[in-house]
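Same chain as my last thread, 160 residues:
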Amino acid sequence: MNAIYPGTFDPLTLGHEEIIYRAANLFDHLLVAVAKESPKSTMFLLEDRLKLIEIISSQYSNVTFSSYDCLTIDFAKANNINVVVRGARNSTDFNYESQIAQMNSTMDNTLENIFLIAADPFKSINSSLVRQVIDLNGDYSKFVSHEVANFLNNIKVKTS
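reply #2:
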């Protein structure tokens, strides 16, 4: 069975990595889909967000990644995907994600939506907050993996 894990991954956090790890162990193939456009403003360029996914997905033989700029359900269909995976840290996330899942199911009831509840160490990690820490030159190393931190540090050096 094939699954898609869509998001902006701006930046890729330890919470995202945990969902990738768990989904990679559940499905034959996991496609990590990086949204080109989002209602959220992004801090990192699409190319950099894709590079972060590449760094982490290289650990798994059954994980691939791509960007997309259409409805998630259309991208899933085009890639022979059966399941949409979403992470939820708390009831607010679950409510938001379940609304999206219901909309997706209304548009295409052949896709299954599953939610993976974040493990306790990752429940407080939120990309928006990590971006604030980065923006204010704080220590974000507790919220992203060592590999991601190295890449982000390299980007900051180039742009400073």
